[in-house]
Amino acid sequence: MTRTAALKPEQVPADSKATLEMFTKNIGFTPNMMATFAQSPIAFNAWATLLGSLSKALDVKTRDSIGLAVSEVNGCNYCLTVHSFTAQHMAKLPADEIILARKGRANDPKRDAAVQFARKVTENRGQVNDADLKIVRDAGYTDANIMEIVALVAMYSLTNFINNVFDPEKDFPAVAPAGSI
């Protein structure tokens, strides 16, 4: 059940139009989440700026794996459909890696450390311990990289919360509930 309607093109606030049009052009359609989020130009454009900046952080497989882990912890079904789709089609992650990422893991040892750390940050609201930091550092991540992981957790949590609150209609292929994977 959606809690607010996605905006039609003529309803998009002027200050959200350029950003939404850029996403529509890049994706090939306007996802309902974005057409919903665009109702607040301030929040939408702030998120889009953060997304653009963080698209340079780490590598695409690690970013998508973190998005899956965070969305699973936060129970965001919309984001799980989006990140499963992008992980498969853009990051070229195989199905078993997508499932592992949802569980907060990865086959690649370095990516596994980042995804496990991101899951702990999400579950514990940033309250990690020295051992958690040591593990991710020992995997080869610098403190700057760790800050990028935390920023990705925050960015994905933002969209998780927006989607959990407003529950836009899903427009990506459905994924199985976590209990069945």
Put the structure in a nutshell.
Residues 44-110 form the Carboxymuconolactone decarboxylase-like domain. The chain has 181 residues and is mostly helical.
CATH class of the largest domain: Mainly Alpha
Let me know the CATH homologous superfamily of the largest domain. Answer: AhpD-like
Measured distance between first and last alpha carbons: 24 Å
Domain count, please report it. 2
Mean pLDDT figure: 94
Reading the helices and strands in chain order gives HHHHHHHHH
Structure description:
- It is a single chain.
- By secondary structure, this protein is mainly α.
- It folds into two domains: about 10-55, no CATH class; about 60-175, AhpD-like (Up-down Bundle).
- The chain has nine helices and no strands.
Secondary structure layout:
Elements: H1 14-27, H2 32-37, H3 41-54, H4 60-73, H5 77-89, H6 95-102, H7 109-123, H8 130-138, H9 143-166
Helix pairs in contact: 1-3, 3-9, 4-5, 4-6, 4-7, 4-9, 7-8, 7-9
Features:
65% helix, AhpD-like, mainly alpha, AhpD_core, 181 residues, 2 domains, Carboxymuconolactone decarboxylase family protein
